[in-house]
């Protein structure tokens, strides 16, 4: 029975975005060794509950897990709306668009669409980034009560760049500003020379919020252009929010763009 429970816990991990795991992920989640995690995944793979990507060696839901995929299907519907917005943002702004979800103190990047500028980010879908440093993460954290934010992130925050927020108190002030503005801002806190803005959505069918963001190199824009980028993001946020049934975006008027400061 103990082994069955561990197998079920491993399957639960696949029920959350990005819907794939490695041996190390399972070992950490189950508090077991890598060899034990590998054996559990091998049994699930042989039974058709999971399948292994031959290139990445990571595991994803298999054909016999299709009946468990209702939540994934609903997330994909919301993701389709966000991907439409990402394409429009890239076409309009020529900058990079992102989508992600919160997982503990990290934001997991689900999708990235690169713009026309030569600056590219070495971030692959499935990677976790510190939520307190990323605009996507801040947009999602702003959906939570302050005590939950502190529980997830702690009171001392790891520095990624010299501009990263260092304390839980500073993060709470930033999230309060995010809620007032209607969008989150990361000002070179994750990548030096890069500013990012993001918004978050909740749906009636998914307990997990989904974030949409836009990143741009500071050398590529001036003050007036930056306000237009934020406005483009908010325009798409209104469209996505209404499509996924987020009441906040259905009824609100977007705030006046103000990308600097806050």
Task: Walk me through what this model shows.
It is globular, with a radius of gyration of 19 Å. It has two domains: 66 residues, Winged helix-like DNA-binding domain superfamily/Winged helix DNA-binding domain (Arc Repressor Mutant, subunit A, Orthogonal Bundle), CATH 1.10.10.10; 181 residues, Beta-Lactamase (2-Layer Sandwich). The protein has 262 residues and is α+β, with helices and mostly antiparallel strands. The chain is built from nine helices and eight strands. It starts with a helix and ends in an 11-residue tail after the last helix.
Which helices and strands, and how do they pair?
Elements: H1 2-14, H2 23-30, H3 34-46, E1 50-52, E2 59-61, H4 70-93, E3 96-103, E4 106-113, E5 128-130, H5 135-141, H6 146-153, H7 168-181, E6 184-187, E7 194-201, E8 210-217, H8 223-244, H9 247-251
Helix pairs in contact: 2-3, 4-8
Query: Low-confidence spans: pLDDT under 50, at least 5 residues?
Result: 67-74, 255-262
Q: What is the name of the CATH class of the largest domain?
A: Alpha Beta
Give the N-to-C terminal Cα separation: 53 Å
Give me the count of strands: 8
CATH second-level architecture of the largest domain: 2-Layer Sandwich
What summary fits the major beta sheet? 6 strands, antiparallel
């Amino acid at each position: 029975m103990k082994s069955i429970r561990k197998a079920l816990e491993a399957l639960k991990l696949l029920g959350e975005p990005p819907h794939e795991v490695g041996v190390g992920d399972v070992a950490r989640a189950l508090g077991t060794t890598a060899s034990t995690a590998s054996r559990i995944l091998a049994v699930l793979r042989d039974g058709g509950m999971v399948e292994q990507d031959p290139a990445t060696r990571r595991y994803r839901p298999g054909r016999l897990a299709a009946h468990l995929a209702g939540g994934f299907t609903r997330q994909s519907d919301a993701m389709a709306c966000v991907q439409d917005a990402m394409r429009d943002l890239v076409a309009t702004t020529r900058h990079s668009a992102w989508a992600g979800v919160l997982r503990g103190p990290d934001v997991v990047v689900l999708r990235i669409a690169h713009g026309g500028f030569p600056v590219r980010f070495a971030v692959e879908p499935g990677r976790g980034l510190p939520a307190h440093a990323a605009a996507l993460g801040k947009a999602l954290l702003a959906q939570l009560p302050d005590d939950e934010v502190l529980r997830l992130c702690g009171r001392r925050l790891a520095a990624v760049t010299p501009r990263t927020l260092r304390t839980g108190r500073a993060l709470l002030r930033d999230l309060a500003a995010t809620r007032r503005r209607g969008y989150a801002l990361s000002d070179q806190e994750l990548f030096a020379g890069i500013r990012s803005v993001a918004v978050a959505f909740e749906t009636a069918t998914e307990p997990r919020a989904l974030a949409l963001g836009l990143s741009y190199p500071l050398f590529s824009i001036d003050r007036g252009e930056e306000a237009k980028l934020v406005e483009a993001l908010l325009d798409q946020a209104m469209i996505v929010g209404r499509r996924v049934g987020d009441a906040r975006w259905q009824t609100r008027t977007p705030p006046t763009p103000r990308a600097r400061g806050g």
